[in-house]
Design a protein that fits this description.
Blueprint: H1 9-35, E1 45-47, E2 52-54, H2 57-90, H3 93-105, H4 121-170, H5 177-204, E3 212-215, H6 216-233, E4 237-243, E5 247-250, H7 252-268, E6 275-283, E7 286-293, E8 311-313, E9 319-321, H8 328-338, E10 342-347, E11 353-360
Length: 362
């Protein structure tokens, strides 16, 4: 069975242009025939007194038709060449788009079109495609780093648990049962906290949130009540006197998780006898929550890395892999992105951190 011939877009555009040209030429010739030739008599006229001669319709047709046909054929060739050239110019970004799409389908995200032509619709499409590839590459890099760090972070408590169990099995009397259970419980709680934080980040990055009307001041009050025991154990004072109504639209569980992470991070990275303040309010069509705490001095160069997974600033102000889960602010950043908000971190004079989250009020 003979297969159908499929024309490319360039050939289709060329034929469309040429068809438009032929159609316009046909209409023009028809107008000439209908509105001019009909006023010319069929036969030639001869005046005997002056020996003058006026051509008839047939004479004009025989003289005009061959020359018109030659001109139409020439113009057809010119139109065909010009149309093919213009179609190629218009479709210039498409080969680059096709090549980039093929490489992307193979998992290669580093290729870019970098179209340097006119900023028309196809040019903007090429730029948008480059932006999409850049974003996909960033997400892919983040996922790879997150997976590697998460694997390391979860492998550590599992290895520690196995080591403790091996020691207890080899020499049952070498470890106190209460001490062994306490160490195993702490390791287990660390692994659970890390896993739960990873699940929250994955949920917030799905982009499908069940939104409702949420008042950040009420969320802040609930988070403070939950973390008061933690603050008391660490002898840190919680100050929530600056909370004002701050209505916004979002996921209540995720916003509570975000606020609890902010407070917990401010409590555990604090000084003995320090303080943590939380405030809420509205400004410029946004609801905001701000948490600040005393603590070690945070270098300005360390601020951008604080929202990276498994990173924190230690008591000497150095950024590195966290001794704990190290997911507090990275979870906050993921939840803020899911709510189309903004996150701002700043170092306080004298030590500590100030974190502000702005969310659309509607």
């Amino acid at each position: 069975m003979t297969g159908r011939v499929h024309l490319g877009i360039r050939a289709k555009l060329t034929l469309s242009y040429v068809g438009l040209f032929l159609g316009t030429t046909t209409v023009l010739l028809a107008v000439v025939a209908l509105f001019i030739l009909r006023y010319i008599p069929d036969a030639a006229l001869v005046r005997a007194d002056t020996d003058g001669w006026a051509p008839g319709r047939q004479d004009i047709f025989e003289a005009f038709a061959p020359r018109a046909a030659v001109v139409v054929v020439v113009l057809f060739g010119v139109a065909l060449g010009v149309s093919w050239f213009l179609a190629g110019r218009i479709l210039r970004p498409l080969p680059g788009l096709t090549r980039a799409a093929q490489l992307t389908s193979q998992g290669l995200l580093t290729h870019r079109i970098r179209y340097a032509g006119a900023r028309d619709e196809l040019g903007r499409l090429a730029d948008t495609f480059d932006d999409m590839l850049a974003q996909l590459q960033r997400h892919d890099d983040q996922q790879r780093r997150f997976a590697a760090n998460a694997s390391h972070e979860l492998r550590t408590p599992l290895a520690a648990t196995r080591a403790l169990l091996d020691v207890a099995e080899a020499d049952p009397g070498s470890l106190d049962t209460g001490d062994l259970l306490g160490r195993l419980r702490r390791i287990n709680e660390h692994a659970i906290a890390t896993t739960e934080a990873m699940l929250v980040m994955a949920r917030s990055q799905e982009g499908q949130l069940t939104t409702e009307r949420v008042d950040l001041s009420l969320v802040a009050e609930e988070a403070v009540e939950t973390l008061v025991p933690v603050a008391d154990r660490r002898r840190v004072t919680l100050d929530a006197d600056g909370t004002e109504p701050a209505p916004c639209s979002g996921s209540a569980p995720l916003l509570l998780q975000m606020t609890q992470n902010l407070l917990h991070n401010a409590i555990v990275h604090n000084l003995d006898g320090g303080r943590v303040g939380i405030r809420t309010g509205t400004e410029g069509g946004h609801a905001w929550v701000e948490v600040d705490n005393t603590g070690p001095v945070v270098p300005q160069e360390a601020l951008p890395s604080l929202t990276d997974a498994f990173r924190r600033v230690d008591d000497r102000g150095r950024s590195g892999h966290a001794a704990g889960a190290g997911l507090g602010l990275s979870v906050v950043a993921a939840i803020v992105r899911a709510h189309r908000g903004s996150l701002e971190l700043g170092a306080r004079d004298g030590g500590g951190l100030r974190v502000r989250v702005d969310l659309p009020a509607r």
